[in-house]
Write a structure and sequence with these properties.
The structure is a homodimer of 260-residue chains.
Chain A: E1 7-11, H1 19-28, E2 33-39, E3 58-61, E4 68-72, H2 76-88, E5 94-101, H3 113-123, E6 128-133, H4 143-158, E7 165-171, E8 182-184, E9 190-200, E10 206-216, H5 224-229, E11 233-239, H6 245-254
Helix pairs in contact in A: 1-4, 2-3
């Protein structure tokens, strides 16, 4: 019996015309039937937003040579939901998201639209990986990132991760000469420390722009931030079960609450 | 030396005029200096969205008797960030979010704007709790939920949880007679199974509404969904570290990748 050609769903949060998703499509093109369903406009910082109070548009577009592609007016999570229900009519064999223009390591995983698409797939039981390059520029060089994407997509198709676990993969700004390989990491406690730039509009009303600087407050070892600094691509296995089991015991003890 | 009066930041995702946040304000009013910073319009399903490509508005409003209140044009996570930087100028002693009109148990924690505000506070190292009632109606009876909120806010102020851990609290539709108390639970693998209702607009273009039904696929014990069904309020300790440590070992073994 011939093996079924794997179905590969590609999405992102920078929008379907971003160079990063083009690099990802090329990276996985040879590995199966590729279908792209991606936002029609940039959705960075959308976290795991979904569209429940408004209808969605979904239009077939011709963006990638010989690849079925759709643009959607919704969020990255919406794209994955719509792709499954209205385009693929079944679960794809893998969902890959990205390649994001900009880092999604450490605490950034929580805010990331790229990762929310991959997480949405993991919720559905679809093997999935989010890819982000630390190079946020529009014309970033995605060649090493694409190489990592091809490698990990192959591994995931041949030996899928335990169900409902996804990968958060970040790629440093490196060349073939300076790239050191991949490392399995844990999520660092490192984050943007935000402040707001206060301005007055032409009518005298206040408004605020979010600004910030990235700070690593994690003093432990084995983090994604550390690995990236040393020239490695970071691979963090991510769960969709946010329960902190240790604190369940703490609550029984300290607050005298009963466990279920 | 007199003890400092605790500062209690209240926010939500249904918007500052929702009855749920009014119930929460009343529930914590006697426990410290209450400051409300909440979205100026409903933000349900916003996940952990933040506003990075647009400026934010923040306006002082008079909504609650004798309580300093601000409405913000951003997401629930934006509200917490702005509150700290521009209103409180320091960390509050606790952040409480809700009371949400509708459940945020199980996988819903990932999509929840209510929980994203509480999670944002936990990221900053602020003790925080998200409260949600399973009664999604506008005129829901929040009396038991408010009682739970008072109780848990007191506990958190006197004995805060380990840093960066927050609580996801859901309250069933109960009366004083049928309410059974609180149970510490784990997050169930239970979720909305979504489909899309396909329609044509007056110009003949396709559009889609998300619809779905809630399904509990979790066969284990100790879940929030189970506890709620039995009339208990569910209390789930939630982490902001999504790393799945078990799968780190799996990756070393099965994919032969090195750990950092």
């Amino acid at each position: 019996m011939q093996k079924k050609i794997p179905v590969i769903l590609v999405t992102n949060d920078d929008g379907i015309t971003a160079p990063g998703i083009r690099a990802l499509v090329e990276a996985v093109r040879g590995l199966g039937r590729v279908v792209v369903v991606a936002p029609d406009s940039p959705q960075s910082g959308m976290g795991h937003a979904i569209t429940i109070g408004a209808p969605l548009r979904l239009d077939k577009v011709n963006v990638f040579d010989g690849i079925e592609s759709w643009q959607c007016s919704g969020t990255p999570a919406d794209c994955v939901k719509l792709a499954r229900d209205k385009i693929l009519h079944e679960k794809p064999d893998i969902c890959v998201s990205g390649i994001n223009h900009g880092a999604n390591h450490s605490i950034n995983v929580i805010y990331s639209g790229t990762m929310s698409a991959a997480m949405e797939a993991a919720i559905e039981g679809i093997p999935s990986i989010g890819f982000s390059s630390l190079d946020y520029k529009f014309d970033a060089d995605f060649s090493i990132a694409a190489q990592v994407a091809t490698d990990l997509t192959k591994r995931m198709l041949s030996t899928p991760l335990p169900e409902h676990i996804l990968l958060n993969v970040n790629i440093p700004v490196v060349t073939a000469d300076t790239y050191k390989g991949m490392k399995i990491c844990r999520q660092a406690y490192a984050k943007w420390d935000e402040q707001f730039d206060h301005r007055k509009d032409p009518r005298g009303r206040d408004y605020y722009w979010m600004v910030g600087k990235f700070v690593n407050r994690d003093t432990g070892t084995g983090t994604d931030v550390e690995a990236l600094k040393d020239g490695y691509a970071s691979v963090v296995p991510v769960t969709i079960d946010f329960t902190d089991r240790k604190t369940k015991e703490w609550l029984e003890r300290e607050w005298d609450l009963p466990s279920r």
